[in-house]
Amino acid sequence: MLTIDPTKKRKLDENGVSVVVPEPDPITGLTPQDVRKLIERFTTDQLLGILQDAAAPHLDVLNAVRSIIDQDLTKRKLFIRGLGWETTTDGRRTLFSAYGDLEEAVVILDKTTGKSKGYGFVKFNSYDFHFSKYIRE
Fold it and tell me: Are 96 and 79 a contacting pair, CB within 8 Å?
């Protein structure tokens, strides 16, 4: 999809190029490009403040934020250290499933002894902000 200034649309139409000109929002009268021009010079802190205030009361904004963060594996995968030698994958899965739906829970085992090496990984299906407060426990 190509979005362009409406004044240049006629020339492109004459050349057979398909052009989509977004309709202004019925309430604000602004197109997404108009809004982008308004906010493009904002600082990161200003944008974060606006987004933070908009995400809590507006489910569509919150869902857009979640869909982006869920794509980032580093936000969903935890390295767990300090596990006991008797720790099992099932034990880790049971413990961490209390904090959210798990995609994967793995305890790394020694190949010769079959015992835990003392660390593992837990990967959640989605980033759930509720579990982040428990990580430091």
Answer: no
Decide if 98 contacts 67 (C-beta within 8 A): no
Q: Is the pLDDT of residue 79 over 60?
A: yes
In which order are the strands placed within the sheet that holds 102-109?
77-81, 116-124, 102-109
Q: Are 63 and 98 in contact (CB under 8 A)?
A: no
Show the tokens assigned to 117: 């090496």
* Average pLDDT over every residue of 41-50: 95
CA dist., res. 121 & res. 130, Å (int): 19
Q: How far apart are CA 63 and CA 94, in angstroms?
A: 27
DSSP letter, residue 124 = E
What pTM was estimated for this model as a whole?
Answer: 0.58
